[in-house]
């Protein structure tokens, strides 16, 4: 198989995901994203992967995903409700942290975030959740200032989003619209941003439906892994004090620190002005930020 086949949901990959998700009783979408996060470690520099390796990785992630769902079973909604019946609420940090640290593909929450959710009208369980944090990506912040006149410190980042399997269609875009209304009341907040990673089969549809626009892209860096499990540079710095792989290998001889070899697709930066219309920037003139 090829990594492109898996990203684009080709039938061979889709059928494997469906089969494993059924056996392990986990959501197809969540399993797909987690597995796509780990397949680059197994792919050759040309993007080829053995089907047996894909199956093994699906099973590994399904087993862990099942354990994660069990750990916060008390927070998992099981009934479907129409979108108009869901209620918008500020989500307590302790609840958001449990959901993001267990179910989000990064398996972590962002400190200093404001958390919001659509909750079901009966049990008040979160159905779709998101986290909004001050933008920390300096590269993006500089481009926002240079091209769009957005002052430093006035951009907020939608850093985490998770939607349970029972969420109705358009739940994420509906939540984003509610969050925009709330963030208009935050002093000096001018724009919302987010990074969409097409390597995980994300296409930005929910953001476009909420009237966000793609303003730029950012050159991809290899994914990093610790003992075969994905770790972001932030997680490596928090856990080991740095993200330089040679240094980490020297300081931790019993731990495998690896990175993907296959070229990855650039991330897309979507933005939404909190006041006024968000400009539509033609793809051919969007800046590609290098790092």
Structure in words:
The protein has three domains: 3-71; 76-221 and 262-289, Gcn5-related N-acetyltransferase (GNAT) (Aminopeptidase); 224-259, no CATH class. Helix 7 (171-183) links the parallel strand 4 (155-163) and strand 5 (191-196). It is 37% helix and 20% strand. The protein is of the alpha+beta class. It has helices at 3-7, 11-24, 28-42, 51-71, 93-102, 138-148, 171-183, 205-209, 233-240, 245-251, and strands at 87-90, 114-119, 126-134, 155-163, 191-196, 213-218, 224-226, 229-230, 257-259, 267-273, 287-289. The longest helix has 21 residues, at 51-71. The strands form two sheets. It has an eight-stranded mixed sheet with strand order 1-2-3-4-5-10-6-11, sandwiched between helices. The model has no long low-confidence stretch (mean pLDDT 96). It has ten helices and eleven strands.
Tell me the β content.
Answer: 15-25%
Q: Give me the CATH superfamily of the largest domain.
A: Gcn5-related N-acetyltransferase (GNAT)
Q: Mean pLDDT, nearest integer? A: 96
The tally of beta strands, per DSSP, is 11
């Amino acid at each position: 198989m090829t990594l492109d086949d898996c990203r684009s949901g080709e039938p061979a990959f889709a059928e494997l995901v469906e089969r494993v998700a059924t056996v392990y009783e986990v959501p197809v979408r969540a399993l797909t994203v987690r597995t796509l996060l780990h397949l680059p470690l197994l792919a050759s520099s040309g993007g080829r992967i053995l089907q047996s390796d894909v199956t093994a990785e699906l099973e590994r992630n399904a087993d862990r995903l099942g354990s994660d769902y069990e750990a916060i079973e008390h927070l998992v909604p099981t009934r479907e409700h129409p979108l108009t019946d869901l209620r918008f609420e500020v989500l307590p940090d302790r609840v958001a942290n449990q959901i993001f640290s267990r179910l989000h593909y990064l398996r972590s929450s962002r400190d200093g975030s404001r958390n919001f959710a659509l909750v079901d009208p009966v049990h008040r369980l979160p159905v779709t959740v998101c986290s909004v944090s001050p933008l920390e990506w300096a590269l993006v912040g500089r481009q926002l200032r240079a091209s769009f006149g957005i002052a430093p410190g006035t951009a907020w980042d939608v850093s985490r989003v998770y939607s349970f399997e029972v969420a109705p269609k358009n739940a994420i875009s509906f939540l984003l619209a509610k969050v925009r209304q709330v963030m208009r009341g935050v002093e000096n907040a001018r724009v919302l941003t987010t990074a969409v990673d097409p390597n995980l089969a994300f296409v930005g549809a929910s953001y476009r439906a909420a009237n966000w626009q793609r303003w730029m892209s950012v050159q991809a860096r290899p994914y990093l892994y610790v003992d075969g499990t994905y770790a972001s540079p932030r997680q490596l710095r928090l856990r080991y004090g740095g993200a330089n792989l040679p240094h980490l290998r020297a300081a931790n001889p019993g731990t495998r620190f690896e990175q993907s070899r296959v070229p990855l697709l650039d991330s897309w930066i979507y933005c939404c002005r909190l006041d006024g219309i968000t400009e539509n920037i033609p793809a051919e003139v969007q800046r590609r930020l290098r790092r």
